[in-house]
């Protein structure tokens, strides 16, 4: 969630910089937005990998609950990575 907040805050700074003609603020905001987006996507990738591992373990052991929990976690990670 921290990445999303940082991405949002950076977008605001970038927009305010554009609005008032402050190129330095605009550039800082764009950098902060990119950093936040990267953090958010990295967190999503970790969730996706964990979910895939859980799903595979569930399939191998015949544990349907673990399999579906892994599927759900993987989908959540893919959604966060966008």
What does this structure look like?
This protein is an all-alpha fold. It has one domain (2-80). The protein is built from three helices and no strands. The mean pLDDT is 91.
Strand content: under 5%
Name the quaternary structure. Answer: single chain
Give the structural class: mainly alpha
Q: Whole-Å distance between the termini?
A: 14 Å
Q: Secondary-structure element sequence?
A: HHH
Tally of structural domains: 1
Mean pLDDT: 91
Radius of gyration: 18 Å
Number of E-type strands: 0
How many helices? The count is 3
- Uncertain residue segments: none
Could you say which overall geometry the principal axes of the C-alpha atoms support? Answer: rod-shaped
Helix content: over 70%
Largest β sheet strand count, sense and barrel closure: none
List the helices and strands and how they pair.
Blueprint: H1 2-20, H2 23-61, H3 64-80
């Amino acid at each position: 969630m921290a990445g999303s907040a940082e991405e949002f805050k950076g977008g605001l700074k970038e927009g305010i910089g554009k609005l008032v003609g402050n190129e330095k603020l605009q550039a800082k905001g764009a950098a902060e937005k990119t950093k936040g987006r990267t953090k958010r996507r990295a967190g999503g990738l970790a969730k996706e990998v964990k979910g895939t591992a859980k799903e595979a373990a569930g399939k191998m052991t015949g544990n349907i609950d673990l399999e579906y929990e892994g599927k759900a976690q993987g989908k959540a990670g893919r959604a966060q990575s966008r």
